Amino acid sequence: MEQTFIMIKPDGVQRGLVGEIISRFEKKGFYLKAMKLITVERAFAEKHYEDLSSKPFFAGLVEYIISGPVVAMVWEGKNVVLTGRKIIGATNPAESAPGTIRGDYAIMVGRNIIHGSDAVESARKEIALWFPEGVSEWQSSAHSWIYE
Ligand code: DAT
Ligand code: MG
Questions:
Q1: Which of 30, 37, 80, 109 has a Cα-to-Cα distance from 140 of 20 to 30 A?
Q2: ipTM of this complex
Q3: In the Enzyme Commission scheme, what number(s) does this protein have (predicted)?
């Protein structure tokens, strides 16, 4: 089954949105396979966002990500990468639909509270970067109630 990397950014942690965000992925039927609260160093944040290093907002983005603890997670399920992006909503909260996490809880693109991998390949890279120790192998006893 597919896995994705989801990170609640420092503003999501500071604003007390951790439980609400986790709840949305849990209630959907996705499985939590790894999770940690961690404050990352500058070089690590630069590595995570290396594809955006030429963007004018890169420096500010890195400052934001290292400004406090984040909650790093791995979620698993059928099509979890694409569906996770839909649950999160558009990058700019001004364009995120109501009902999405960013649409419901954020206003500015530079304070959009959550990250989600944009493709299966980037998810694989991000999970390896954030969880070099590996993820849990547990299986949900609700599986046959979620999948036919
Ligand atoms: P996403 O987080 O939706 O995958 P992205 O990978 O294009 O979006 O950009 C990563 C983060 O960078 C994004 O969540 C917020 C910030 N960002 C993107 N575009 C921006 C912009 N035009 N101005 C300021 N910050 C931006
Ligand atoms: Mg992205």
A1: 37
A2: 0.98
A3: 2.7.4.6
Residue 48 annotated as catalytic: no
Per the confidence metrics, is the pTM higher than 0.95? yes
Which residue bears the tokens 């406090």?
Answer: 68
Binding site, annotated residues for ATP: 9, 57, 85, 91, 102, 112
Q: 116 CA distance to ligand 2 centroid (A)?
A: 7
Specify the residue with its C-alpha closest to ligand 1, atom 5: 91
H-helix or E-strand containing 7?
A: strand 3-8
Domain limits of the chain? 3-133
Q: What residues pair up with 71 in beta bridges, in sequence order?
A: 8, 37
Per-residue DSSP letter, 52: G
- Please state, in angstroms and rounded to a whole number, the distance separating the CA atoms of residues 106 and 96: 9
The dihedrals phi and psi of 32, each to the nearest 5 degrees, come to -80, 115
pLDDT tens digits, 7-47: 999 999 999 999 999 999 999 999 999 999 999 999 999 99
